[in-house]
């Protein structure tokens, strides 16, 4: 590595050079296309590597499994969300946070189903990313709740989101409908506005 290469920190990996970070980006971009074409069942790290133009061994250097790779895709999309807006009522802010998280992959049904499955994976890298995803979602909800920091409300909202994700992942509802249902749940969970 030359002294001029900038290092980038990836969530479950060592610090990466710009070139290595570009390889990871190409792999995650290729994974989205590949899962859209072949579904989760047909997805392999080897095929993603081929689509990204890297050797399979290189891909496995960064991703231990297809679950790790797809969980990384979800993590990157979640991390790219803008900060929670301070405007609006409590309900409007919370609904906006729940909706944006629910809709991260809603336009890509194969990817959405793959994310649900991958997030339940047991590999250590998936577990680490799942914790990071949970923390990021909690922080977004806390930012929306602001002064309404009742841990019971936060916990109920987290459970509502997690249950909705699994419900949609099992095919009981669409991810777009899940966003609407989460808005309904938020109305039930949040305290009535002060008069």
UniProtKB/TrEMBL annotation:
Keywords: DNA-binding, Transcription, Transcription regulation. Residues 21-81 form the HTH tetR-type domain. Residues 44-63 bind DNA. The keyword Glycoprotein does not apply. The keyword Secreted does not apply. Signal peptide: none annotated. This is Helix-turn-helix domain-containing protein. It comes from Actinomadura chokoriensis.
